[in-house]
Amino acid sequence: MSGGASLPVAARWRPVYCFFSSVVEDLRARWVMVTRRSFLYSTAAAAAALSVRSGAVGAVGLYVEQVARAREFLVGLFDPALGLLPEFRGSPTYWLYHDNYLAAAVMKRSHPEMSAKIGAAIRRYGVTESGKIEIVLGESKSPLPFRRYELIEVGRDGEKVIKTEVVKPELFPGWEPYADLLVLASMAEGDRQVAEGYFAAARKMWDGHGFADVVVPGAGRYATYKLALALHAARRREFDFPEAEAVRTQMLGRQQADGGFITDYTKDGKNLGFANVETTSLCLLALE
Q1: Continuous H helices in 130-276
Q2: How far apart are the first and last CA of the chain?
Q3: Which of 90, 194, 219, 229 is the most exposed place for a label (fewest CB within 10 A)?
């Protein structure tokens, strides 16, 4: 042996023990971090998947850019002289219901002053309701059974014509072949099972391009607003909607460079018509 007293065994092994102990602690900390991240990722992924399945886009905060552009489209159409929005850019027609009622609702949070002016303008013409479109916001007083409606003129301001929709007393039989009315009924119906039946009937009309209801064969076009209604109804009432992602993709394809949503489109995806207030407002409801 060389000179000097040898260290006890415990003392000789203490540095090695401390080294391995620190390694173990570091690995444990890393494992906890990875496990926590995996849990958070899995939870977020599950929430997103559930949102997509039911059409609940807003729940996961997606499509912020599309929503902002749609809002700017509506802001750009606001006519301060009337306190209303025209049907589409350059149109002399201003619809109180559905257009401006919907615009006031979707702009209330982001542009409360503009929303309030629209509401005041609607009341100024003595119009307080339509009786049908309020279903989408849960504000219809007597939504079912569906009744016939009439489009009427309520005022003029120079070349500008103010119109609205009003529901008449007569019942509207045979409404079931219309996808939009099926979706509206699914939101208005109090009986959950019946409501799900209405929504399921509308889902069956989805052909991979749009809702091919009784209107499509004669018109040769699909309606964008029906896509928005279905997405909104699925989220609001938590209906099973496995087609939601495909429906949403089709709807987003109708948004134009100015942020507005085109009213109609063909089977091959060609946009038809103009970007208007009603369609854009309903698409906003579906995306938020």
Answers
A1: 179-188, 192-203, 216-219, 224-237, 244-252
A2: 81
A3: 90
* pTM for the whole structure: 0.80
State the Cα–Cα distance between residues 236 and 133, nearest whole angstrom: 15
Say if residues 107 and 78 touch (Cβ distance below 8 Å).
no
Decide if 132 contacts 143 (C-beta within 8 A). yes
Is the omega angle on the peptide bond into residue 98 within 30 degrees of 0, that is, cis?
Answer: yes
Would you kindly state where each structural domain of the chain is located, as residue ranges? 11-49, 55-287
Q: Largest Cα–Cα distance of the chain, in whole Å?
A: 115
Confidence of residue 26 (pLDDT cuts 50, 70, 90): low
pLDDT in tens, 120-146: 999 999 999 999 999 999 999 999 999
H helix or E strand, kind and range, residue 9:
helix 9-54
Residue with tokens 């909104």: 232
pLDDT for 28 equals: 53
